[in-house]
Amino acid sequence: MSFEKNKFQVVKKKRLQKSEFKVECNVPVEAEIDKIFSVCHTAQVENAEILNGIVNFNGNIDFCILYQGVDGEILTINSTCPFSSKFEDSQLSVGDKVGISCEVVDYSIDSVTSSNIKINCVVQQKGVIIFCKDVETIDCNDDNVCSKKEEIFVSTFIGQSNEIFNMDSEVSIKEPIKKVMLCDSQVSVKDVESGVNFVSVSGEVINRLLYLTENDRYETSYVTENFKEEIELEGVSKDSIAEAEAKVKKGQVKCEVTEQEKGVIIKISVPVDIKVCAYEEKPVNVIKDIYSTCEELEVSTESFDMTRELNADYFEAKIDGNLSLGDDKPRVDKILFIAGTNLSISNAYIQNGEIFVEGVAKANVVYLNDEENSNNSVTVEVPFVVSDKTTSLCENPEISVCAVLYDVDVVVRKGRDLFFDGKLKIHVNYDCEEVSAVINSVSTQGEPIERDCEIELIYAKKDMEAWDIAKKFKVREEMLMIQNPEVSFPLAEDTNVILYYQKTK
After folding, report:
1. Total structural domains in the chain?
2. Nearest one of 275, 309, 102 to 201, comparing CA atoms
3. What is the C-alpha to C-alpha distance for residues 439 and 303, in angstroms, rounded to an integer?
C-alpha cells in the first residue's frame, strides 16, 4: 500500500515588526535665516534588498522649508536627505516580496547657521512580507483504500509589478507673480480592477500651489488631475484580486513658470510610482477523510494558514477643529498663508459594518501681528475620526490605510482662535488570515482486520451518513448502499442497517 505525496501553494502575508530609527539631515542654505516658519517632510523608500533573514532598504526624506531671511523676505528651500535601515525576520528569504513604508513621526531643528540647517528626524518603519508556502497532501489509488475528497479554495500569489508615469498639469493665473513658494503634490488611489494580464489603477493627482503675487499677496491654488493607468502583470485575469499603492516621487516634481501677456502659466510635472500585487483564488482537491478496508491506518493532519486578499474601499470625508493660541504667541491680525500640511494615521478598525479611521491633521499657519509688525507661525493640530460603510466581510481583517489631506483652510476668530477645516481622500486595503488543515501523512499499522461473522446488524443513529458507517466497520461505502437499497442517507431516523461480509481466510 503506497501513498503519493502532493503539494499546493498558498500565499502568506506577515507584518514586520514596526520600529523607529533616527536620521540626521543637513540642509544647505545660501542666506542668513531669521526664523523658520514651516518644515514639510515626506519619507519614501526607494530600494530594498532581500536576503535570508534580513531586508536592507534605503530612501529619501524630501524637505520643503519656508523661512524668513534677515531682510524680512520669505523664502523656500527644497532639499533631499538620504537614509537607510533594515528589518530582521527569520521568515525572510531570497525571492520573497516586501512592501515597506516610512514616515517622519517627529523632528527637531538642532542648529541653524548661514550655510546649514541641521534637522534630527525620527522615522517610523513598517512593512509586510509576501511569500508562498508549500502545503503537503497525499493521494492513493489502492483498491483497499477509501478516500473522501473535497474541493477547497486557496489564495495564491500571482505577482508584483510597478510603473512610473508623469502627470502633467497647467495652471493659468491672470496676474503677474513674483515666485512659487510651494508646490506640494499628492496622489490618491480610487479604484483597482483586474483585466487580462494587467491591473487597472485609477485615481487623482492633487497639486497645491502657494505663490506670491506682484502685489505681495500670498495665494493658494489646488489643481486636481484624474488618471487611469494599466500596469502589465502576467497571469492576471478578470477574477483576480489586486491591491495598489501609489506614491509621488516628490524630489523629482518639476514646476515651471512661463510669463504671459496677462499673467503666467505654471506647468507641473509629477512622477507617480504605482506598485500592484495580484492574487487569485484557486480550487484544490484534497482528501478530507481516509480509511482502509483491510488494515488499520494512522492518519496525520497538518494545519496551514494563508492570507486572503479582499476588495478595497474608498471614501471621502471632511474634518475640522479649533486651536486657541497660548499666551506666549502674538495675536493673529492677518493670516498670510498656510505653509504646509501633514497627515498621520494612527488607527483603523471595523465596527458595526463601518470602517473607522483615526489620525491627526496638521497645518503650519504663517500670520502677521500688527503690534510687533512681525511674521509668526503656529502649527494647528486636529485629531479626527472619520467613518464610512465597509465592504469587508472578514471579522478581524488586517487594515492598511492611505489618506490624502487637501482643500485645507484656516481662518482666525477674535485674534486668538483659529478654525481649521479640510478634506480627506481615503483608500483602504484589507486582507484576512485563514487557517485550514489537510491530511499530509498516512501509514499502515500492519495488522489485518479480522471479522468474526459473515452478517452484521448495525444500529445506526439518526443523521448518520453512509460514509460514517462504512468507515466505522471498514467496508466500502458503495457496498453498504447496495446491500441496503431501501435506506436513504443521511438517516432521517434511527435505522437498522445490514452488512454482508465476504468470508476470507
Report:
1. 4
2. 275
3. 9
